[in-house]
Amino acid sequence: MNHNQENMAARAAPILFVVLWSTGFIGTKYVINNADPLTYLAIRMAIVVGLMAVIVAIARPKWPDRIGIAHSAVAGILVHGFYLGGTAIAIAHSIPAGLSALIPGLQPILTSTIANRWLGERVTPVQWAGLVLGLGGVVLILHNRPLTGEAGLGWLASVVALISITLGTLYQRRYCSRIDWRSGNLVQYVAVTIFFAAGAFLFEDREVHWTREFLLALAWLAVALSIGSIGLLYWLIRHAAATSVASLFYLVPAVTALMAYVLFGEKLDALAIAGIAMCAAAVFVVNRRL
After folding, report:
1. How far apart are CA 187 and CA 71, in angstroms?
2. Where does the record place it (predicted)?
């Protein structure tokens, strides 16, 4: 890849990542109507393991050593396991798709705080201002929403997803950045398939309605999300600071909310729209070159 192609990829990758990642919440809304959350995730990850096995068989990448395999498994449980599990459970407990992205949308604040201490990355005052601006945008989008009852359990699951994706992103950057993404991802997906399968057998009835809606959404989530967006995420982690990558997650609630409005009629009022604008501005501030 020449220098111009690298520059084009660097500009396009964040936009494509945000769009793909946002569709994950929409696709989950469709599959949850037809299957229990952990059961659906076990099926999805089993499909992804098959796809990644084909990629690895063709590419024949270098395999990680035992320590690398262990690190990949931990990263997989964090990035895929608790994050996807928390998101799916949140939607299953009546959290609208457009709102299930909001709590994980706080990730940049948590990531920048930890990265500042754990990875030694310097977060500038301007970047801190951008992170706070994005937090304010998420608060505006979240205003006047129910936070108790069944929804309360859903929000708790979203908090688990927030903590998991934050720690997983930092863990991946610190311990797995030199592992080939193909072999590393295969290890991660095997680990998380076992994780979800165990959860489904322990806590769910494992009932699935194999409708056309379920199959189409499952195919999209397995290929576009688990292969496409995760590959982009790890590419971004390798090519950017943790704070800059995390700031992209501020755009996910906004894009998801717009998609949910079009597809499910989930309404946006003036304050929510203002919050979306603040989130977009926050990403610009955090990522601008100083």
Report:
1. 10
2. Membrane
31 located within any domain: yes
Residue-by-residue pLDDT tens, the chain, 290 positions: 555 655 665 667 788 888 888 898 899 989 998 999 999 999 999 999 999 999 999 999 999 999 999 999 999 999 899 999 999 998 888 777 766 776 776 676 677 767 666 666 677 787 788 778 877 887 787 676 655 556 677 878 888 988 898 888 888 888 988 888 889 999 999 999 999 999 999 999 999 999 999 999 999 999 998 888 877 877 787 776 666 676 777 778 778 888 888 888 877 778 877 887 887 787 777 766 54
DSSP state string for 137-202:
HHHHHHTT---STHHHHHHHHHHHHHHHHHHHHHHHHHHSTTS-HHHHHHHHHHHHHHHHHHHHHH
For 24, the token pair is 């994950």
Q: DSSP of 200-220, one letter per residue?
A: HHHH----B---HHHHHHHHH
How many other CB atoms are there within 10 angstroms of residue 214's CB atom?
A: 19
Residue 7 belongs to a domain: no
| Integer angstrom CA distances of residue 150 from 90, 105, 156 | 9, 21, 10
Looking at the 3D structure of the chain, how many domains does it have?
Answer: 1
Full residue range of the structural domain in which residue 44 is found? 23-287
pTM for this entry: 0.81
Token pair recorded at residue 34: 């037809």
| Alpha-carbon span 197 to 103, nearest angstrom | 26
Residue 2 lies in a domain: no
Cα(260)–Cα(268) distance, rounded to whole angstroms?
10
Distance of alpha carbon 143 from alpha carbon 271, whole angstroms? 8
| Contact call for residues 135 and 79 (beta carbons, < 8 A) | no
Six token digits for residue 108: 């940049």
